[in-house]
Amino acid sequence: MGKVKEFMKKKDIEISLKRYGIDALGAMAQGLFCSLLIGTIIDTFGKQFHIPFLTQTVATVKEVPYTVGGLASAMSGPAMAVAIGSALKCPPLVLFSLIAVGFASNALGGAGGPLAVLFVAIIAAEFGKAVSKETKVDILVTPLVTIGVGVFFSWLIAPTLGGMASYVGVLINSATYMQPFLMGILVSVIVGVALTLPISSAAICAALGLTGLAGGAAVAGCSAQMIGFAVISFKENKWGGLVSQGIGTSMLQMPNIVKNPRIWIAPTLASAITGPIATCLFKLEMNGAPVSSGMGTCGFVGQLGVYTGWLNDIANGTKMGVTAFDWAGLFLISFVLPAILSLIIHTGVKKLGWVKDGDLKLG
After folding, report:
1. What value does the mean pLDDT take over residues 89-97?
2. How many other C-beta atoms can be found within 10 angstroms of the C-beta atom of residue 261?
3. For 35-49, 114-128, 244-258, 266-280, which range has the lowest pLDDT when averaged over its residues?
């Protein structure tokens, strides 16, 4: 047992919740952002501004036409796998071999491909690291083992994992349509909390394919956390804090939350209010790329996802056009209500003596 532990330490193979549930999951979201999400943004930009280069077909693969953005989106599997491998500190040969593994697991995982990529890429990466530089023909052995293990597990478990993730996503989406008030609260709060925790709400939303009303509730919850913390901490952090939290990430407040969890009350309660308002009053749906549901106001990706979804709905005939009510709902849910509600609730929390000046100061 001691030799096994020594070998794993030498290979930097660490079986832990942090390594797999935080580092790898967070990296997977970055891979999705740099492929699927960026591809969607490029396509939307090209269509809205009528840029021929971005809207015309630049490649055709097996009779399937691809635009520039389409090609970027098609690489989401390899991008996620390589990002995961980078987080797991894979040697170059293992990292490059994960390109094939990501493609296989994402393709076989179907709608739940991101979850399949997460599991399969981790397995393949650790096997690859184990054999890396252990033989004189490393350039053959390491890619063969990494790709062989990855493709095998893609065939073995990717369809099941993908199906499970897709089923859970459909269940959440369906439940939100049937119980928009209750699910609006639950989805908004849970995804919003996940955004602030050192895990990836974007990757979770992507893995579950969270769109529709549930996606709208997720956007509401994430926005409430980011805008909420940005506004209630303005006294301590000024404009720099407003920008870094409001369009960056509320995760910056985690050290302060550990010191005093009560600073989390205002943004979380705000999300519990804006979630059902989004689902019941404005019927806010996020029908763009699922990863956008868990991004909130980060780079305004959540809002862009909602807008892209509107365009998709108009294109397939399920929506006649974007109305002033749609825009009002998106703006109120994303920015105005989180700011006002968080300030009101935070004032009450401070009067109770639960939070004092300086508790929200960023380091």
Report:
1. 97
2. 10
3. 35-49
**Contact 338/230 with Cβ under 8 angstroms?**
no
Positive or negative: CA dihedral 152, 155, 156, 159: positive
Six-digit token string for 285 = 């749906």
Q: Are 286 and 187 in contact (CB under 8 A)?
A: no
60 pairs with which residues across the strands? 65
pLDDT tens for residues 112-126?
Answer: 889 999 999 999 999
299: left (phi over 0), alpha (psi -120 to 50) or beta: left
Identify whether the C-beta of residue 198 lies closer than 8 Å to the C-beta of residue 251: yes
Q: 33-47, 224-238, 252-266 — which is least confidently predicted?
A: 33-47
Whose structure tokens read 């955004």? 195
Give the integer Cα–Cα distance in Å for 344 and 231: 11
* 212: exposed, middle or buried (Cβ count in 10 Å: 0-12, 13-18, 19+): buried
187-218: per-residue pLDDT in tens? 999 999 999 988 778 888 988 989 999 999 99
> What is the gyration radius of the CA atoms in the chain, in angstroms?
22
The three state secondary structure string of 317-328 is CCCCCCCHHHHH
**Taking the CA of residue 247 as centre, how many other CA atoms within 13 Å lie in the half-sphere pointing to its CB?**
8
Q: What type of residue sits at position 127?
A: F
Task: Give the model confidence (pLDDT) of 321-348 as tens digits.
Answer: 999 999 999 999 999 999 999 999 999 9
Pairwise CA distance, residues 20 & 153, whole Å:
17
Written as six digits, the tokens of 319 are 């929506």
Helices 265-276, 212-232: crossing angle, 10 deg rounding: 150
User: Whats the size of the chain, residue-wise?
Assistant: 363
CA atoms of 142 and 126, how far apart (whole Å): 11
Residue spans per domain, the chain: 2-158, 179-351
Give the tokens for residue 64. 């399937």
pLDDT at 131 over 90: yes
